[in-house]
Amino acid sequence: IWMARCFEATRQRCCRLEQDGHRAREQLARVEAERAALEVKLKHARNQVEVEMKKRHRAEAELEKQERKLQLVLELLMREPWGNEALSREQCSVLSALAGRRLGATLAPIRRSSAVDESCQSVLSHSDISYDCTEDDVVRS
What we know:
The chain is mostly helical. The chain has a domain of 80 residues. It is built from four helices and no strands. The longest helix has 78 residues. It starts with a helix and ends in a 34-residue tail after the last helix.
């Protein structure tokens, strides 16, 4: 009788462990599916960040190009004698104020978006955004 009870206790414990193992495998499958979905989202987000960074760099380059053109026009207007005659006093004062402060310096503070502060390192700086495939090389069982 004692041996039968021991066998029954062992059988019940094995059944519980088997159920626990089944639940753990189900949970593992759910977590792996969630991880895969999050990896896809991360890949899309990284691609979007890269696209936006390229757009931003192009826009900044175009802004600098336009600033240089405007500075040259201002300098030309201020140097030419006919420029001062053709312009009103108000226009001349505005142009001399712009030329005096150097146009590039007046527009520089608005160059960066106020929504994104890149003056200091954040926890997730753009330099940290890179996809590392080393974890993908690990053989999963």
